[in-house]
Amino acid sequence: MDLSVDADVSEIPRVTDAVDRFGEDAGLAAGTCHKLSIILDELLSNAISYGLGGNGDHQIDIHIERDGERLVLHVSDDGIPFNPFASEKPDTSLSVDERPIGGLGLLLVTELTESQTYERVEDRNLVTLIMHSGNG
Amino acid sequence: MNIETRTKGEICVLHFEGNFDSNTASDAESVINELIEDGKLKIVANFENLNFISSAGLRVLLATAKRLNASGGDLRVCCLNQTVQEVFDISGFGTILTVNQTEDEAIRSI
């Protein structure tokens, strides 16, 4: 699957639809498609908020392929250098009142995937993720 | 995402259908905030027809729980599918929020 979207959350439904179609073609369970959609929602909203400064003129490129039991995801943008995996993990043991709002997105990405890589390639941020194709 | 509101006495049951993500979270927050401003302080979120929730949705749930806690209300979440349950487990929301298996159980215990 290859898709380019504007750096705007209004593009999320287009991403989710494309993931569902890809999942159908690749024979993925619905749960796996939903996890892919969560991961992409987190990466896109993060890139839009930080690396791209909320500027909708930028494009984010998404590539997903199935390699046997693995799914390989590439997400890239031309924003300022921004490594999403460099931030601290939130404390998930705090109560409702103690818990700060936010910071959970990348924890979900990390926990739902097997490996996460960030690179700066030719003035672009490139995130590569590997996840199981069968954990529906 | 579609949210259908059903009122049972002083309890409001919200049926979520679709995807609770960064594109739909702000609309969901508006719906919930209107209910709270209207004095509806006992809210059950039924996720039976929800496909998935991302951190944007979790943020709305946490903000709602904080508001309801502060005003003597209560939030229950019920009927999680496997993906939503996994997100709750990873984020710790399964322990900080009260999760019920069924809507009846949520309504009885709120």
Written overview of the protein:
Chain A has helices spanning 12-26, 30-49, 105-112, and strands spanning 2-6, 59-67, 70-77, 115-121, 124-132. Chain A has 136 residues and is α+β, with helices and mostly antiparallel strands. The mean pLDDT of chain B is 97. Chain B contains five helices and five strands. The N and C termini of chain B lie far apart (25 Å). Classes of the chains: A alpha+beta (136), B alpha/beta (110). The interface between A and B is medium-sized, with 30 and 27 residues.
Shape of chain A: globular
Strand order, sheet with most strands of chain B:
1-2-3-4-5
Number of strands of chain A: 5
Order of helices and strands of chain A: EHHEEHEE
Core attributes:
heterodimer, A: 136 residues, alpha+beta, 3 helices, globular, B: 110 residues, alpha/beta, five-stranded mixed sheet, 34% strand
Topology:
The complex is a heterodimer of chains A (136) and B (110).
Chain A (H helix, E strand, L loop, with lengths): L1 E5 L5 H15 L3 H20 L9 E9 L2 E8 L27 H8 L2 E7 L2 E9 L4
Antiparallel strand pairs in A: 1-2, 2-3, 3-5, 4-5
Helix pairs in contact in A: 1-2, 2-3
Chain B lengths: L1 E7 L2 E10 L4 H13 L4 E12 L1 H16 L3 E5 L3 H10 L1 H4 L1 E3 L2 H7 L1
Parallel strand pairs in B: 2-3, 3-4, 4-5
Antiparallel strand pairs in B: 1-2
Helix pairs in contact in B: 1-2
In short:
With 136 residues, chain A is an alpha+beta fold. Chain A contains three helices and five strands; from the N terminus they run βααββαββ. Chain A has helices at 12-26, 30-49, 105-112, and strands at 2-6, 59-67, 70-77, 115-121, 124-132.
